[in-house]
Amino acid sequence: MLADGLEPVRDLYDVIVIDTPPSLSYVTINGLWAADGIVVPIPPSGLDFASSAQFWSLLADLGGNLDQQDPTGARKAFDFLHVLLSRVDQADAASPAVRQWIQATYGEFVLPVEIPKTTVTSSKSAEFATVYDVQRYDGAAKTYKRAVDAYDRFVDLIEESVVEAPARPRSGCRGMIGRPQRNALATRLPACAARNYGEWQPGCHAEGGRR
């Protein structure tokens, strides 16, 4: 439904950002199936890491079922898929260990930038705003700069992925990352972004946007 609703306005924007709830609800499913790329933020905590593994497992099963039900035979695929380390607390003793788990599990899907947990991001999130909405920050300038630099780098990486995404018509679209990657992430195997949506071989490298 969301994909159909966005169709008339897609050409009016360079990028449309869909921020979904952190659960595999109907709203999230609609957002995923309307999107051309996915960014999954994962804080380096044991609970969030475990939740992400469950998310990919459920998404792999759900995606297969939805593909089979599509009357046109089209298969949903994504131009890029990224995992973003977010709310990284350098003072958390467990953070480095969980960060290693995430890197080992998601490999080349992990973006080479981390969003730090700072007072400026926490305060603006409570106001449903971002660090770019700060008019005057009363805290340390170093803290503000650290947050802004991280978000700037993240935006640059996503822009690269968007620019490098293959140009393709909206109807019957095919992307570079589809069910093989969902299954691979769900089972912790190295992923291969085969252009043929139904084929996947472990031990390959992903073809997402440049990291």
Shape: globular
Helical segment count: 7
Main sheet attributes: strand count, strand direction, barrel closure? 3 strands, parallel
From the 3D structure, determine the CATH topology: Rossmann fold
Overall mean confidence score, pLDDT: 77
Give the neighbour order of strands across the main sheet: 1-2-3
Unreliably modeled segments? 170-211
Strand content: 5-15%
- The total number of structural domains is 1
CATH homologous superfamily designation: P-loop containing nucleotide triphosphate hydrolases
The H/E string reads: HHEHEHEHHH
The percent range for helix content is 40-55%
Q: Determine and state the CATH class.
A: Alpha Beta
CA distance, first residue to last residue: 32 Å
Helix- and strand-based class? Answer: mainly alpha
Rg (C-alpha, Å): 18 Å
Please tell me the CATH architecture by its name. 3-Layer(aba) Sandwich
DSSP, total strands:
3
What would a concise description of this structure say?
This protein has 211 residues and is mainly alpha-helical.
Describe this structure in words.
- This protein has 211 residues and is mainly alpha-helical.
- The protein has one domain: 3-Layer(aba) Sandwich (Rossmann fold).
- Helices cover 43% and strands 10% of the residues.
- The chain has 7 helices and 3 strands; from the N terminus they run ααβαβαβααα.
- The protein has a 3-stranded parallel beta sheet, with helices on both faces.
- Helix 3 runs antiparallel to helix 7.
- The longest helix has 24 residues.
- The chain is globular, with a radius of gyration of 18 Å.
- The protein starts with a helix and ends in a 24-residue tail after the last helix.
- 24% of the residues are buried.
